[in-house]
Every structure is written in C-alpha cells, then in structure tokens.
Design a protein that fits this description.
Layout (H helix, E strand, L loop, with lengths): L4 H11 L19 H7 L2 H35 L3 E9 L10 H11 L5 E8 L9 H15 L5 E4 L1 H8 L7 H4 L2 H7 L3 E5 L5 E7 L4 H6 L7 E4 L6 H13 L1
Parallel strand pairs: 1-2, 1-3
Antiparallel strand pairs: 3-6, 4-5, 5-6
Length: 247
C-alpha cells in the first residue's frame, strides 16, 4: 500500500480513536449592546449621524404630532376669547410698522375689557393698479372674507383704499351714524367719497394730527378711519372714535 500523507493522517486519527480532526472552538459571541450603550460609545458626530440615519422618520413623526397638538391647543384656547374690535391698518408707508399698542392696550384699557376680551389688529398693503401682485389679491380676498363674515369692524387706510371700498358700499355713512355730540367734535374731519349709488357720503374721519395717529405711527397721508357697514361691534367702533377725539 502506498503510503501518503493522507494515509498517515488517517492512521494517526485511528490510533487516537478519532475519525475527524477536532474542530476549533467558536469565538465567544460579543454581548449585544442596547441602543443607549451604542450611543454612549460613539463620538458626538457619529451620534448625530446614527440618529439621523436610523430615526429620522420617528423624529419627523414626533415633530408633526407636536405641531398638530400645538395648533389644536392654540385654536381651542383662542376660541375662549371674545373679540371686542377688529381693525385693519392699510397702506401705512412709514419706515416703521404701525404701533398697535395705542389700540390693543390703551384703548382696551379705556373699554375696561376683561381678560378674555381682545382687540385684534392686522396690517397690510393694497394696490389697485395693473401692477397689483399676488399679495395684493390675497390681502383683498382676506378683507372681503372678513367683511362677509361680519368679523371686521374698522379700517384705517389711505384715501385710495377708502375710495375703493366706499364704491362697494362697505362703510357706514358717519353723518347719520355718529351722535350729535361726536359730530360736533369731529364733523370738520369728515371725509366724503362716492358710494355704489354714485352719491357722495361721509365714509371716513381724518385722523391727521391726533395723538392716536402720532402714537400709532400712521403714515397714510392722511390716515382715514371708516366703520364697516356690517360690523357687529359698532358700539366699540363708535367708542374708538370718541376715544381718539377726546384723548
């Protein structure tokens, strides 16, 4: 019999009572680390990468849920407030934005509003020429929606805006609306514009030179105040006029 390396190996195995060579023991398994232990073992840079790679959808879901909770909570909280007056400032072209504190704080104190009563103010710009932008159309749509919902009470704007909305019969005739004592005080400041019938009506009051206009930083040349004809808070709008011309 030819002796080979293989036969010698087989003979050695037989003498040792083995048929197969002993297998090496498998290396011990490394203990599985928890996610927290993995993160602790990483550098800060690797941690951010790891979290962004494996948990971005979880994080996004958390942010979306928090946003929804915040939006719903804010809406529910705001629904507990009552609006005492809603005023829109239009086309004030000063270097600084309109200061709403004289209206939202000082006039609110004059009305002695409760904690759940508020004065809402907004500001915007409208152009009625051919260069009107999408912003202008969006602003006009918002004002129209507020008027139709009877939410808007007062507009303080420049003559161009007042003339435009007067032609749509948006304002009260102040000569017939204002009490005699208020007309006596502010009658010389009445601003007349053409209404939808083609007739002139006293649709606004000129606020030029008043302490209110100066404190608010109104720059409409001149700033004109009108009361929306469909306002449900005309008593507070009248109180604002009285406040402006007596303070």
């Amino acid at each position: 019999m030819k002796i080979t390396e293989e036969t010698m190996r087989q003979q050695a195995l037989a003498e040792a009572g083995q048929t197969e060579p002993p297998q090496p023991s498998p290396p011990p398994e490394e203990p599985k680390l928890s996610e927290l232990e993995k993160l602790k073992a990483m550098s800060w840079k690797d941690r951010f990468w790891y979290i962004g790679a494996y948990y971005k959808f979880h994080i996004l879901a958390v942010f979306v849920a928090l946003f929804v909770i915040f939006a719903v909570g804010t809406s529910l909280y705001q629904s507990t407030f009552d609006t005492a007056l809603y005023c829109f400032f239009l086309n004030s072209r000063g270097e600084l934005p309109v200061d709403t504190a004289p209206l939202e704080e000082e006039f609110a104190a004059y009305l002695d509003l409760g904690k759940k009563e508020e004065i809402i103010t907004e500001s915007g710009f409208i152009s009625f020429d051919q260069a009107a932008s999408e912003y202008t159309y969006a602003m006009m749509a918002k004002i129209s929606a507020l008027v139709m919902a009877h939410d808007l009470d007062v507009v303080i704007a420049d003559p161009v805006c007042i003339d435009h909305y007067a032609s749509l019969d948006a304002f009260l005739d102040l000569e017939t609306f204002l009490p005699a004592e208020v007309l006596e005080e502010a009658g010389a400041r009445l601003y007349y514009a053409e209404t939808g019938t083609g007739e002139k009506a006293a649709v606004a009051l000129d606020l030029s030179g008043t302490a209110f206009a100066q404190a608010s930083g109104l720059q409409q040349d001149p700033p004109l105040l009108s009361i929306i004809s469909g306002s449900q808070r005309q008593d507070n709008a009248l109180a604002l006029i009285e406040y402006i011309y007596t303070h």
